[in-house]
Amino acid sequence: MKQLVDSFWRAAAYCLHPRVIWLSVLPLLLTGVLAAVLGYFFWESALVAVRAQLDAWSLTGSALGWLESVGAGSLRTLVAPLIVLALAVPALVILSLLVVALMMMPKLVDLVAQRRFAALERRHGEPVWRSVLFSLGATLLAVGALVISMPLWLVPPLVLLLPPLIWGWLSYRMMSFDALAEHATRDERQELMRAHRLPLLGIGIVTGYLGAAPALVWAVSAALLVFAPVLIVVSVWLYTLVFAFSALWFSHYCLAELQALRARSEPGSSVTGAPDAILIDAVPPALPPV
């Protein structure tokens, strides 16, 4: 628990670092451009296709007809945009997570290693291509779980449990692997991920719930659908910030536990993590050094 809390506040402090803020913008640029292009070319056609499908289903047709009968016909026009956004935003978030894993994660791990674990030996246990395959495999499993569980989201309690749990599991698998890929051998990584499965999964679940926070942007008002392209970009940026925090939290925790593992198994080669000179230019002097 002590290591979880310590790595948590360190990750929060690192989020104020200019390099971290800039790295969070890079995936945003990619997903923002993609959202704008897809919205420009496919938004209207997607709405038409969804409305046609809703009208073709007798159950949804009856529900929409009932809305009109009770004087809530204006809500009918919002159903199709909400469905399109419900499908588009997770796809963009998944893309953002992959970009974070491939672009941000190595740089954030390197930032943590340079400032706090400079003496920790890099044993290069996993090549880049294996990290990519591992991330893709975990992402496909998570997407499959999301698709299969979507009917259960209609049950009010489950919609608050299932998506964050799935995102948490995905973050745990991907970010634990990437945090240890450069420094740990394969045996060390497997041992750490097995021995610390519950704490790492806990970090993933907490960050999974944090990742659900950007959805509040859409819950403010249905009128915000007019600004859907902008809100998608803002949502993705918020997700990216959460992913950056998650990557930093996993990096601090995993590298600290790797250092402790080596200190136990190789006493002669143990090193003490140097106090990192983080955020001298970004954190107010009143804060303790991280």
Structure description:
With 290 residues, this protein is an all-alpha fold. It has one domain (2-28, 87-269). Helices cover 76% and strands 0% of the residues. The chain contains 11 helices and no strands. It has helices at 2-14, 18-56, 58-69, 76-116, 128-149, 156-159, 162-181, 186-195, 197-212, 216-219, 228-265. Helix 5 (128-149) runs antiparallel to helix 7 and helix 9 packs antiparallel against helix 11. The longest helix has 41 residues, at 76-116. The two termini are 18 Å apart. The model is unreliable at 277-290 (pLDDT under 50).
How many helical elements? 11
Percentage beta strand: under 5%
Taking Cα atoms only, what radius of gyration do you get, to the nearest Å?
22 Å
- Give the overall average pLDDT: 75
Oligomerization category of the chains in this entry: single chain
The main pleated sheet reads as:
none
Describe, in short, the structure shown.
Helices cover 76% and strands 0% of the residues. The chain is mainly α.
